[in-house]
Amino acid sequence: MKNIFLLGGSGSIGLQTLHVIEQYPEDFKLVGISLGNRNHASNELILTKHQPLIVCLKDDSRLGVYQNLFPNTEFVVGDEGLLSLATYPMDGLLVNALMGSVGLLPTIKAIESKKNIALANKETLVMAGDLIRKWVNQYGVKLIPIDSEHNAILQALLGEDKDDIQSITITASGGAFRDLPREALVQVTKGDALKHPNWQMGAKITIDSATMMNKGLEVIEAHHLFELPYNQIKTVIHKESIIHGMVTFKDESTKAILGYPDMRMPILYALSYPRHLNLQIKPLDLETLGTLTFKPMDFERFPLLKLAYKVGELGGLYPTVMNAANEKAVALFLNNDITFLEIEKLVIDTVEHFKDNIESPSLEDILRCNHEIYEKVGK
Ligand SMILES: NC(=O)C1=CN([C@@H]2O[C@H](COP(=O)(O)OP(=O)(O)OC[C@H]3O[C@@H](n4cnc5c(N)ncnc54)[C@H](OP(=O)(O)O)[C@@H]3O)[C@@H](O)[C@H]2O)C=CC1
Ligand SMILES: CC(=O)[C@@H](O)[C@H](O)COP(=O)(O)O
Ligand SMILES: [Mn+2]
User: Fold this and answer.
1) Which atom from ligand 2 is nearest to the alpha carbon of 214?
2) Is the peptide bond before 361 cis (omega within 30 degrees of 0)?
3) For the chain, which end, N or C, has fewer CB atoms within 10 Å of the first or last residue's CB respectively?
4) Contact of 173 with 198, CB cutoff 8 Å
5) Are residues 139 and 159 in the same domain?
6) Which of 295, 314, 333 is the last residue of a domain?
7) Range of 161's domain?
8) Which InterPro entries match (predicted)?
């Protein structure tokens, strides 16, 4: 039985993780969870069903209500509460399904408390990939990606020698506006941008997908996960999202992992790694699948992906700057404060004006930079 600590339990990945856990009562036990404020009825159902030992609430607005309903559960609150959950003194796997930079510190604290990590929160690796890799090695824990492309590449790499890799390829659906030229982006709305063609996901990543920032974050995430230079990390538009990731070896043979777009597959693999357990989802049927299509990535059409490669190469605080600017710009867009194209502009301008890079920043440098950029962008 594996103990599971789930951060971001009320979100898209969080709820799908719960769905997976519920299919395997003999294998996984939810012992800790963090929950937001979106749906209290759903939160109460989760707590009734799983009876976790510790629960982190986003704020204390309904703390008393929860404490009365679940007197045997320990409740903690806010950012400090996330750290208490991450460091809970019990072995287990921490699933980080938080959205954004808030995910970084709990990941680090969980590593220090020797928990294995199943990581959906890609922002963690974008901001502090070098430090995370160092701590993962130092504390001897596993870091397993949930992000579908990286999870697929992890599967394709199992049993292979890193020296035999020629390149890895991350596929991109193209997002909500993949068929629109740049000129048409002037008039797109929030509602349009939130319509992802293939995946049902949280709002922030859905917008990142429409700007192609998501692929940029994923390229940096892959650099840290697989310890590959950026010229060995490729992206291609694959609008069906059936192939999630590929590894090409030096002899030109290529391994690809396929499946319908359903996050329960990579989530289960991250929970059961390196085993593949039964999963009751739509079986892949090649006969009805039809044609799989591929288009070269257009870096002029998607300048944020081009920026991410540049920022990744520059290293230091640059990925944190890009990530913080993007997180703020997307929040402003979702709040109807800026237009879709202003997301790109804010992110590019912020990176261009940044002059205080540090080659090997400490965690404190990264957190301070993240906070300063987030506060400054859009002001
Ligand atoms: N959704 C997907 O299919 C995929 C997601 N990812 C990555 O996984 C992560 C989560 O994505 P997704 O599930 O879509 O996002 P959601 O927005 O659906 O869920 C995010 C979760 O984090 C919680 N949260 C956000 N901010 C805070 C905070 N400050 N304090 C405490 N809790 C907080 C939310 O609470 P609340 O309920 O209140 O909003 C929610 O539980 C992201 O990094 C994303 O890039 C990667 C691949 C696929
Ligand atoms: C499901 C998943 O892993 C997302 O990160 C997905 O990749 C988003 O789709 P895009 O390919 O459009 O970015
Ligand atoms: Mn992905």
Assistant:
1) 13
2) no
3) C
4) yes
5) no
6) 314
7) 150-314
8) DXP_reductoisomerase, DXP_reductoisomerase_C, DXP_reductoisomerase_N, DXPR_C, DXPR_C_sf, NAD(P)-bd_dom_sf
The two beta strands, 165-172 and 254-258, are unpaired
**Do both 277 and 183 map to the same domain?**
yes
Residues 59 and 132 in one domain: yes
Regarding whether 140 and 155 lie in a shared domain, the answer is: no
The domain that holds 69 is classified in CATH as 3.40.50.720
Q: What is the pLDDT of residues 173-201, one digit of tens each?
A: 999 999 999 999 999 999 999 999 999 99
Query: Is the full-model pTM beyond 0.90?
Result: yes
**Number of domains the chain contains:** 2
pLDDT score of 224: 98
Q: List, as residue ranges, the binding site for NADPH.
A: 11-13, 36, 39, 121, 123, 202
Residue among 7, 13, 15, 102 whose CB has most ligand 1 atoms within 8 A, to mutate: 13
Around ligand 1, the residues with Cβ closer than 6 Å are 8, 10-14, 34, 36-38, 58, 97-99, 102, 120-123, 147-148, 199, 201-202, 204-205, 263
Which residue bears the tokens 């694959």?
Answer: 238
Do 179 and 88 lie in a common domain? Answer: no
Sheet with 143-145: list strands edge to edge: 74-77, 54-57, 28-35, 2-7, 93-96, 116-119, 143-145
CA-closest residue to ligand 1 atom 6:
120
Nearest to residue 106, comparing CAs of 98, 122, 300? 98
Whether the CB-CB separation of 69 and 42 falls below 8 Å is answered with no
Query: Within this chain, do residues 186 and 279 fall inside the same structural domain, yes or no?
Result: yes
Report how far ligand 2's centroid is from the alpha carbon of 113 (Å): 30
Among 96, 124, 145, give the residue marking a domain's end.
145
Strand ranges (DSSP E) for 8-67? Answer: 28-35, 54-57
> Which contiguous run of DSSP H or E holds residue 73?
none
Same domain, 62 and 88: yes
210 with 135, same domain? Answer: no
- Residue pair 132/125 in contact (Cβ under 8 Å)? The answer is yes
> Is residue 226 included in any domain, yes or no?
yes
Q: How sure is the predictor about 379, in pLDDT bands with cuts at 50, 70 and 90?
A: confident
| Pocket probe mutation, ligand 2, options 121, 149, 196, max atoms within 8 Å of Cβ | 149
